3-deoxy-7-phosphoheptulonate synthase
Amino acid sequence: MIIQLKQGISEKEKSALIDEVNGIGYKITEVKTQLGDYLIGIGKADFDIRRIGKKAGIADIHIVSDEYKLVSKKWKVKPTSIDLGDGIFVKDGDMAIMAGPCSIESEDQIRKVINHLKENDIKLMRGGVFKPRSSPYAFRGLGLDGLKLWYELAQEAGIKIVTEVMQVSQIEEMYPYVDIYQVGARNTQNFNLLDELGKVDKAVMIKRGISGTIEELLQSAEYVFSGGNEKLILCERGIRTYEKASRNTLDLNAVPILKAKSHLPVVVDPSHGIGIRAYVPQMALAGVMSGADGIIYEAHEVPDKAYSDGQQTLDFAQSSLLADQIRKTFALRKTFELL
Ligand code: PEP
Ligand code: MN
């Protein structure tokens, strides 16, 4: 159960309410976010909802029996819109394009990517400064200094930054320089990281775990929301299956399912999803048609020289073409009324 509390609820009203809910046999967790105060009740007992609904201080009460609650559409039908400032949003009914290299490599590279994004009116730049690599000997990113430099150049260009946070200790040092914290597929169930990102007042994009289910992704998002941060984006980036012909299996089934189950925006990552440069555009456009609210893909001036993931990275000409095709496909989708 989710109980939305009225803004001015007194401590006395709140404790009377908690006592009543405990009395029915439900355990209460209090949640305070940027946008509201909630009581989450966990229990199984049947009860007459009027017993609680009439109490003082309640704005609304909803029965949500799913494992995840606050990220569920069952209580919040209106889609969540992520406002990044300067008129830049990730939201339902819109198409956010996030593009950039797998890894941030140098000042020269950042400048080139930013120019490319500006030419194509792309407002969100992706890139990793802390890189999770399968091998400890691979390039592991420029770290905080790289992020600071990137931020300075992106600011000047009016471009927002999407970048991966790998551990709790990085959250605070990255904070001034990040617009969207990305939780990578290897960290989807790093619950300490998710808890701490709940305390931050900046957007968080959670990627689906490498072998994570849709429900597990939603539960990971629930960690951040129940920690206090409602600014959440979900990302389908492919899962590991028995198929070896592609790097991962981009599960586009997840998009309409996530959109139906949750009020959060959903972004598709075709680069990691298929892992083969030549097929990234097709899967990006399929992602648009599947109902995604955004596409994130890897782009680099010379993909074959990229420090990581070059095999799935588009060059600037391919990226320009794709950005245009994403917009055209999205315009077409809007004529269909998908969901
Ligand atoms: C990335 O975005 O470069 C990345 C490492 O993604 P994922 O966590 O989905 O593998
Ligand atoms: Mn990558």
Notes: The pocket of phosphoenolpyruvate (ligand 1) is lined by residues 102, 128, 132, 184-186, 207, 237, 272 (CB under 6 Å). The domain at 82-338 is CATH 3.20.20.70 (TIM Barrel).
